[in-house]
Structure formats: structure tokens, C-alpha cells
Amino acid sequence: MARETHNREDLLLEGVNLPERARLLHRASGREWVIGWRTGGGPAFYDGPDRVYQFNADNQLRRVYLDGSKLAAEGGKLCELRRSEPTNPNSPAGDRTQKVKLVWQPIDSAVQRNVLMQWATTRQQLLAALNLCRERDLPNETSDHMGSNHTNSTQNTQPSAFSWESVGIDALEMLDRTNGWLVSITDNPEIAAQPNA
């Protein structure tokens, strides 16, 4: 995933692994987040083209794609997929019999702290954007003491700052679900024992 950037609109429309998903687009900057839930599993957060955080059903971080690196949980730590050294370092450079092996190698604690700091930034910025979207761009219906419904929305007076759309779930239900989940998780989530959903 980190080597191929995906158009978030395509992910929203074709993200079959995330049957309930939504996209939040900040119109002025073009920044977009795609959020989705796996069937029976946890959420995934796509923040731009190369920042992805995937969680399992127990709200543990299981995979991260960040700045070109593919990270996965292994035994409660994040590991990076890397090429291993050739098994025979004395073979000639043109020898094509050497097979490339990819292995998971634990990242050091400073790199893991940096990954979690970037998650915290994504989480906080997405929460703030969701709250602004709800306050500014989505109608709020309230009932007065007479039982009449009133809409309190700035949609008619100010241009919309955000676009929120969903697939497989009602947009407001997805907004509430996403916001609730982000509030419940910490900036320093537990790392899963394995990368599986």
C-alpha cells in the first residue's frame, strides 16, 4: 500500500474490504481522510496518500503504512518489512540465483514513538475536523418546548468547509461512530500481538 498511492475517491467507491466507509474532505486544502470498518473487525484510517492506520476489533494497532514504510504488529511491537541480506554475500553481483527475502524486523523504540506521535496528530486533527464539519456544515435539528423542530446550520450563510460522504452506512451514523471511536481511543494505542484483522 505504501508503494502505491490510492486515490481516496476510488477507495471510497471501491473499498470492498471496508463495507462501511466515509470520506471527509477539507475543501480549502484538499486534505482528505477516508475512514472504514472491516466486517467484524476494527477501523482503518487513511490520512492522505501515504498515512494509513489499521486497528483490530480489540482497538489495537495492527498495521501502519507511513512515509513509504510498511509496518505491522508482531508480539506487541511494530516491525518493518525489509529486504534481508543475501544468503551468500560472496556471489558475483550479476548472479541472479540469489533470491530476495523480505523479513519483518522490529523497529527501535524511538521510531515506534514517532509513529505513535504521528497517529496522535492524525487522530487529533481528524477529531477537530469532524467536529468542525458537524458544527459548520451539517444541519443541527433541535426541538423547542412546543415540539417544533428547528434547523441551526451555517450551510446557508457560509460556504461549506468540509464534505462528508459515506458508503454502506448512513452519513450521520458514520460520523457519530467515527467520532465516538476516536474519542474512546488514546493517542498511544496498544500494539496488537499480530497484524491480522
Write the layout of secondary structure elements.
Blueprint lengths: L7 H7 L5 E7 L5 E6 L5 E5 L3 E5 L5 E6 L2 E6 L2 E7 L18 E5 L2 H29 L2 E4 L5 E4 L9 E6 L3 H14 L13
Helix pairs in contact: 2-3
Task: Spell out the key features of this protein.
single chain; 197 residues; alpha+beta; nine-stranded antiparallel β-sheet; two-stranded antiparallel sheet; 31% strand; elongated
What does this structure look like?
- With about 200 residues, this protein is an alpha+beta fold.
- The chain has a domain at about 10-85 and about 100-135 and about 165-185.
- It is built from 3 helices and 11 strands.
- It has helices spanning about 10-15, 110-135, 170-185; strands at about 20-25, 30-35, 45, 50-55, 60-65, 70-75, 75-85, 100-105, 140-145, 150, 160-165.
- The strands form 2 sheets. It has a 9-stranded antiparallel β-sheet with strand order 8-7-6-5-4-3-2-1-11, with helices on both faces.
- Strand 4 and strand 5 (about 60-65) form a beta hairpin.
- Helix 2 (about 110-135) runs antiparallel to helix 3 (about 170-185).
Give a brief outline of the structure.
25% of the residues lie in helices and 31% in strands. It is built from three helices and eleven strands; from the N terminus they run αββββββββαβββα. Strand 4 (51-55) and strand 5 form a beta hairpin.
